[in-house]
Amino acid sequence: MLIKYSKHFLNKLEDLIAESDYMLRYERGNFQSGWCVLRDTKIIIVNKFFAVDGKINCLLDIIKSVDLDSEQLSEKNRKLYFELAQTELEL
After folding, report:
1. Angle between helices 52-65 and 75-86 (to 10 degrees)
2. Closest C-alpha to 17, from 29, 26, 4, 27
3. At a CB cut-off of 8 Å and minimum separation 6, what does 45 contact?
């Protein structure tokens, strides 16, 4: 899958996470990697000062590292989730 670094693709990733049990928040913080996942409370925090491409890279890393229940996702988002799971990031 070709990753497009646009606001539209960022919105797709945000919608994917919104359909899961996790809650996404953009906050200020000194995270080592630019993001933080609080697994017990299922909250994802991303540095709000990142540009669109930085936010997309963070969300892609997070989606690959947490277990999202694909049964909760709509058909469109389930397809996107499985495509992202097979995609390797090229920086």
Report:
1. 90
2. 26
3. 25, 26, 27, 29, 31, 35, 36, 37, 38
Residue boundaries of the structural domains of the chain: 20-84
Reported as a pLDDT band with limits 50, 70 and 90, residue 16 is: very high
Partner residues linked to 46 by β-bridges: 26, 35
* Non-local CB neighbours of 1 within 8 Å, separated by 6+ positions: 83, 84, 86, 87
Residue located via tokens 């989730």: 81
- Record the pTM: 0.85
